Protein: ATPase
Amino acid sequence: MECFALLPPVHPVVCRATGQKTNRYHICGKSFKLAVNTSYLSSMTPSKLALSLQMPVAADPARLWTVLTTAAYIKQWLGVTIASTWQPGAPMSFNFHFNGKDFEDKGVLLTLQTEKLFSYTYWSSFSGLEDAPENYSFVSFSLKPAGRATMLSLEHSNIATEQMYQHSLANWKETLEEIKRLAENA
Structure:
């Protein structure tokens, strides 16, 4: 059975792993064509970057899912207070305090398939980019049972610049380690 995530229109992005342009989404070694929904964002440009990371977590999918989608845990692994109705298509706000200032990053919840897939769009107030549809990136967490563990895969695409890519890569590596720690030590 093919799984299509509720995602905005897609134009090819550069896959950092292969260096090739692609308009397919790779989750747990399977390739899914991105579904089109023009109500969210207008476009992605071919020059945007994407990253993909995987990590085995010694926890069952239910436990890992709780860590990924519960506000109290999100505060621990992402450092933000998240607000959303948790319904696909609903806005998400990521609120945090930094250097004496309050910030709000934004997104839209795209897919929430219990213990399988959690995806959303994301715009950072730190990015220096205008809050415009083309400046939102896409973040997806997928879970797949792997024996006594769960393989956690992260995809982050539509990253605007190499500098943002490097920043995101470093942050996501640390974040995945924290998610793993929380899920394995609960």
